[in-house]
TrEMBL record:
The keyword Glycoprotein does not apply. It comes from the Bacteria. Keywords: Monooxygenase, Oxidoreductase. It comes from Ktedonobacter robiniae. Pfam families: Bac_luciferase. This is Luciferase. InterPro entries: Bact_Lucif_Oxidored (IPR050766), Luciferase-like_dom (IPR011251), Luciferase-like_sf (IPR036661). Coiled coil: none annotated. Residues 1-316 form the Luciferase-like domain. The keyword Oxidoreductase applies.
Length: 352
């Protein structure tokens, strides 16, 4: 098991500034680099207090790279449908150079209708644009001169620079919320898998992980080389009561801003996102208590959270847990306490 950090801004901008949020994130990463955490990851979203303060993951990751020496830097994820692949390939390769080859690139399809509308991209084209964009970026990284004719992009003798430090290219990951089709495709292509567990809980996340590993084996990739990362929220304190109260406050804010973003699904359907119009109704049934019960959050004392991690390991196998420890309107003291307590009380039990 490995343990990294996941940064998705989910604070109320009327109460917390983006400046303060990013300062907190950077302080956490500097300390995490000395405590043995494996990675730092951030998102691409727009407009809403749910993720919208991070429209370009490379900017925050470059700042993290300048303050650390060991943390892997992960996009979780960039959206090919909203970016020109030439620009995205160049920016990500630049980040790989700045970080001396510490970049992991996660790609996602996005899922908020309002974002697609603003970029004038039909949601029904999401998967096709996603797959074409990734294929083109991979070519731009690995070929000196690229000519490409697709449904959405046409390139004629293009040389992309800089090239990545990591050869043939940085590790490539696919972000998934609930699509079994998507995780099978990722395994077939030889890409690693990022799972956001907040929608499916233990059973659905376990199903995604099992489907991915089976498809990886069927694709005859080298056994045991697959990688899976699972996002979970995490809140630790010295006492059980303190942990529950602190998590409850932060999680409530997080749920509110996520619900605001999901409201753009009202009256919307898409053949590329079957069932997503029911997300808001399903999410409205969740509480801070159910997130703990369903394994999408690790909450308690170090001893309690250790047992919760063992439970996730039994369900998912050995994965990297991407811990969201800065969410809601959380003050610096609380997120730093979680970082320290998890490193002291949980991580040593999973060292080789």
């Amino acid at each position: 098991m490995k343990f990294g950090l996941n940064f998705i801004p989910t604070f109320q901008s009327s109460k917390v500034s983006a400046e303060d949020y990013f300062a907190q994130a950077l302080r956490l990463c500097e300390r995490a680099d000395t405590l043995g955490y494996s990675s730092a990851k951030t998102v691409e979203h727009y407009f809403h207090d749910y993720g919208g303060h991070s429209p370009n993951p490379s900017v925050l990751l470059a700042a993290i790279a300048a303050r650390t020496t060991k943390l892997r830097l992960a996009t979780g994820a960039v959206i090919p449908a909203f970016n020109n692949p030439i620009k995205l390939a160049g920016e990500l390769a630049m980040l790989d150079n700045i970080s001396h080859g510490r970049l992991d690139v996660g790609f996602g399809r996005a899922f908020i209708p309002e974002e697609f509308q603003a970029f004038n991209v039909p949601m029904d084209e999401s998967r096709a644009r996603f797959e074409e964009g990734i294929a083109l970026i991979r070519q731009l990284w690995t070929q000196e001169e690229v000519s490409f004719t697709g449904n959405y992009h046409h390139l004629d003798h293009i040389h992309s620079s800089p090239k990545p430090v990591q050869q043939p290219h940085p590790p490539m990951w696919i972000a998934s919320i609930s699509s079994l089709e998507g995780v099978r495709w990722a395994a077939q292509q030889g890409y690693y898998l990022m799972i956001v567990s907040s929608v499916g809980g233990l059973e659905r996340t376990s199903q995604l992980a099992h489907t991915y590993r089976t498809a990886w084996k069927e694709a005859e990739h080298l056994p045991g080389t697959e990688q899976i990362q699972v996002v979970v929220q995490c809140y630790l304190a010295e006492s059980h009561e303190q942990a529950l109260e602190g998590f409850k406050q932060a999680r409530s804010v997080c749920m509110d801003v996520f619900a605001q973003a999901l409201r753009s699904w009202q009256g919307q359907t898409s053949s590329a996102y079957l069932g997503y119009e029911r997300l808001l109704g399903a999410f409205s049934k969740q509480t801070w208590q159910t997130s703990i019960e369903e394994g999408t959050a690790l909450v308690g004392t170090p001893e309690e959270v250790l047992e919760q991690v063992y439970t996730l390991q039994r369900w998912y196998g050995d994965v990297e847990l991407s811990l969201e420890i800065l969410f809601g309107n959380m003050p610096d003291m609380e997120s730093m306490r979680t970082l320290e307590l998890f490193a002291q009380g949980v991580m040593p039990h999973f060292q080789s």
